[in-house]
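TL;DR need structure tokens for one chain.
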Amino acid sequence: MSEVQLNDAPRDVQEEQLARMVLSGRVLWHLWHQAPRAEVLTELGAFLDEWPLGEERTDVQVGLTKMKAGISADSKALAMDYADLFVGPDALKAAPWGSVYLNEEQSTFGETTLAVRKFFREHGMEIETGEREPDDHIGLMFAFIAWLGEQGLEQEEHEPLQPYFCSLRTFLEDHLMTWAPRLCELVEQQAETEFYQGLAQLTAGVLAEMASMTGADIKPARLYR
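>> reply
TL;DR here they are.
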């Protein structure tokens, strides 16, 4: 949906779009930020059946199908796959931080991380996970999307929602879509389980749908991984 379309859309349509981004952002935040616990997997299946965003996209449907098939995998296998992809101790198959892709040194806590932190703070969000970790982790970035969407949904009826869509558009253009599709590509190639292969495809589709909804213009960036 373009900016003009969003400006012209009825209030309830804009609220529905934000709500869909909030719900999908919350789930993707948790799935990317930590290996899923058994009790989470039990509840996740039903939610995937009612996935709220981009459900008409082929990549989203393929991702959902793979994830639902992979939920039944042994939880230890999923935890091992998550560690191999994102944690270590060996070289990560798919580092989850934007700075690793955007900085020639492939290090964290550099200019890319600080730019994301600045964007969070400018919008009133402080990341508190109990750990010292880079703000440009893809899970935390989905947490921000969900949080910002919630702020929009809490506005009074007379307050415009367009500023929230504009902020989301800028965030996608400048901080997330520059590198996240490459991360999804690596995860799809390197994951040992259907669950994480599916998560990569689902995420790629959701990001493309968010870009379409906000009118984000995907800017090419030089990637180092």
